[in-house]
Each structure stands twice: as structure tokens, then as C-alpha cells.
Design goal:
- The protein has 332 residues and is an alpha/beta fold.
- It folds into 2 domains: 2-191, Rossmann fold (3-Layer(aba) Sandwich); 203-329, Rossmann fold, CATH 3.40.50.1980.
- 40% of the residues lie in helices and 17% in strands.
- The chain contains 14 helices and 14 strands.
- Strands 3, 4, 5, 6, 7 and 8 form a 6-stranded parallel sheet that branches. The protein has a 4-stranded parallel sheet with strand order 11-9-13-14, with helices on both faces.
- The longest helix is centred in the middle third of the chain and has 21 residues, at 181-201.
Length: 332
């Protein structure tokens, strides 16, 4: 599957360029840039040259824009899939893997970072004081992944806009900050076209299968509300996220709510110490789910973690899941 993904996305890399020189003029390189990030205006006094990223999707946003030469390193657990056969392999080969855990102040300072690109629960966290505010006191600016922006409903709920809009907002902002606006616009246009092609073939109305995203958890499942990437991956593929009414991104729910909503399909997020096959076996044997349509009909589909967080792999995930949902719709 990863080889097919790499082949599909390599065309995009060739089209948009990889590791090319930035488009910004010499005079503009030192000019301040003001962006809207998580609803706030943030001014960056110069173009960052030593960016440190946290996690795979965030790292690949930089690599998809050909910005590996602007990176000082990344932090990423080694449970996020094979990185040796992806369109951005050359970028990964050029950038230092700083940590197989989350970023810390220590490895950010050791890397002499001049920008930290992370997200709430994708590196930024109150525990341990690794926050944009704390980094700012050290003189290190931050950019927050838009999928992870905290909203006004609670102190911890995340998400301020539809997930694909968040992806496009970050690509647009990064394009402006690093002077690669044309490359960012080309990526966005390509993504929108590929997604529109899937949408045109998708089931409609009552033929749309209902879908539950299963990330992890046995006592309580960890899943996606309407502000995490699976919401629109499911929707654009031709399905309905049964947790759409949950005003959060990634969050925990109860098994009773899954049973009550009786999804036609369960979408498994593949990462971590528990394999996708083990997750599937658990779901098929978990007593509360015995009468759920997806379990009775063994309709369980798997996507990789990086497919299901904000990343440049989202369009490919939509295409693959869309093809699967079309087969489900024909059998319901």
C-alpha cells in the first residue's frame, strides 16, 4: 500500500518541486511577515532558517513544500510507518531526527531552532511547560498546527475550522512565511482537484455509509470529532462520521455511543505498539460491539496514522477510502 501511495504522490512532488530555492526576493527575506495562526495575528521578524518540527504530518508539510533546507530537525516516534519509501524520502534523509519522543526545550535549544512548528497534543503541552509562550520567553517563535488550535468551548477542546481548511490554511501560511507561495498554491490546487474527483464518484444521500474512526483504547475508544482530519477524510470519501456532533478534534467517547450510532464501517488508525491487525481482532471480539453493523459484516478498513492527521497525505487517503466506501455502498 505504501508503495502505491508513494507512486501516486511522486507526481505531485515532481510537479511542485522538492528542495528548490525559495521564491522570496533578497529584499523580502529580511522583512517581517504577519500571519493569522489559531485566530491570532503573529509577526515573524525574519524567515526561519532552523525550523524544528514535531511528528510526521507536521514534518511532511515542510517537506512537501521543499523546505528541508530550512529545517534543523524533527521529533517523531518510530511507530508512524515506513519512511524509506515515501515521496519525501530525500527530505527525510537531509533532516536530522532529533528525538523519538516529543520535542523538549533541551533538544530545541541544542538544535539552535529559530522556529518550532508543532501543535497542541502534537508536541505542545502544558505538562512540562512546552508551550509557545514558554518558548517565546527563550526567544524562539512558534507556529501552531491549525488542526490542533484550541477553541473557545473548553480549555482543552481543539479545532477552529474544517480539517481540510486547516490544511490549506497552514500551507498558505507556510508559503507566505518562507516565500514559496506559488508552490503552496500549486499543492492546494492539486489537493482540491484530487478530492473533487473522489467526491464526484462518492455515494450520496442515504447511500452514504456511516463510519466510526477507531484510534485506540479498550475501556473507552479514542476517536475523531468534527475538527480532526478523519472528519473530512470520511465525508469527502462518501461516508458520514458518526461522531460529527462531537465539537473537538481527537477525543475519547464511550462504547455505548458507538453502539447507539451503529456504524456501517469502522476505520482503524494504524500506529503504535498495538498493530492494526490486533486492533481489528479486538473490535471483532469486543462483546458490546457484537450487533454493530460494521462488526457483523466485518467492514473494517485501515489507514496509516499520517493519513489521518493533518498532512499532505490526506488526499491520497481520501481516494483509497473512497474506493472502499463505494464497494460498501453497493452492498448495503
Amino acid at each position: 500500500m505504501r508503495k502505491l501511495l508513494a507512486a501516486a504522490l511522486c507526481c505531485l512532488v515532481v510537479t511542485t518541486g522538492c528542495g528548490a530555492k525559495v521564491e522570496r526576493s533578497e529584499d523580502a527575506k529580511s522583512a517581517a511577515v504577519t500571519l493569522t495562526n489559531c485566530g491570532r495575528e503573529v509577526t515573524y521578524e525574519k524567515v526561519p532558517e532552523r525550523v524544528v518540527t514535531n511528528d510526521v504530518g507536521i514534518t511532511e508539510l515542510m517537506l512537501a513544500l521543499g523546505l528541508e533546507d530550512r529545517m534543523a530537525g524533527f521529533a517523531m516516534p518510530d511507530d508512524k510507518g515506513d519512511l524509506s519509501d515515501v515521496p519525501w524520502k530525500d527530505g527525510y534523509d537531509k533532516v536530522r531526527w532529533l528525538s523519538k519522543d516529543q520535542l523538549t526545550k533541551e533538544n530545541v535549544l541544542d538544535a539552535r531552532a529559530d522556529l518550532v512548528f508543532a501543535g497542541w497534543n502534537y508536541g505542545f503541552r502544558e505538562e512540562g511547560g512546552f508551550t509557545p509562550e514558554a518558548l517565546g520567553k527563550l526567544g524562539i517563535p512558534s507556529y501552531i498546527l491549525t488542526e490542533s488550535c484550541r477553541n473557545s468551548r473548553t480549555k482543552s477542546s481543539r479545532g477552529i475550522m474544517p480539517p481540510l481548511d486547516a490544511l490549506y490554511a497552514d500551507l498558505t501560511n507556510l508559503g507566505k512565511l518562507f516565500g514559496v507561495e506559488k508552490r503552496a498554491a500549486a499543492l492546494i490546487a492539486d489537493f482540491k482537484k484530487r478530492i473533487a474527483d473522489v467526491r464526484a464518484k462518492a455515494p450520496s444521500g442515504t447511500d452514504r455509509p456511516t463510519v466510526f474512526l477507531y484510534d485506540s483504547g479498550r475501556d473507552q475508544p479514542f476517536t475523531s470529532g468534527r475538527y480532526a482530519a478523519p472528519e473530512q477524510i470520511i465525508t469527502e470519501s462518501g461516508g458520514v462520521n458518526v461522531m460529527h456532533d462531537v465539537a473537538d478534534s481527537w477525543t475519547t467517547v464511550g462504547w455505548e455511543s458507538v453502539v447507539e450510532r451503529n456504524p456501517d464501517v469502522i476505520l482503524v488508525c494504524d500506529y503504535g505498539d498495538v498493530s492494526a491487525e490486533e486492533k481489528k481482532k479486538f473490535l471483532l471480539s469486543h462483546p458490546p460491539l457484537r450487533d454493530v453493523s460494521a462488526v457483523k459484516n466485518r467492514r473494517i478498513f485501515t489507514l496509516d496514522y499520517v493519513d489521518l492527521v493533518e498532512s499532505p497525505r490526506n488526499p491520497s487517503a481520501i481516494a483509497r477510502f473512497g474506493a472502499y466506501l463505494r464497494t460498501v455502498a453497493g452492498k448495503r
